[in-house]
Request: fold
Amino acid sequence: MPYQEIPSSLNRLSQDVIGLAIKVHKNLGPGLLESSYRECLFYEIAKAGYFVEKEKALPLFYETIKLDAGYRIDIHVEKEMIIEIKAVESLTDVHTAQLLTYMKLSENRLGLLINFNVTLLKNGIKRLVL
Reply:
């Protein structure tokens, strides 16, 4: 598939969500469980008027069968962007690979990997585009 630029609406969506994540981080700080950040970010995104789902099941298709392999998208916004929440010492290649896999399986081109366990949230955000 040839490279296509991300629509400006998706860029705006990711900017808005990053702003909301920063708001959550400023209020809670680092050191909590991923579930705490997921719930608060979900709340803020919904409050901002976006269609948002959390813990959304993501099936795996293998040949002709659909498997429930237990994959769950932390937060899915406007059915176009996946957010994977972490609260770890540092992001690793495995975290990136996980988000990329979810993006491919869901056919979403935009994803945010957000690690809330940092002093300054901008250092814990990774934006991925397929």
User: Anything to note?
Assistant: The chain has a mean pLDDT of 92. Residues 56 and 73 are 5 Å apart (CA to CA).
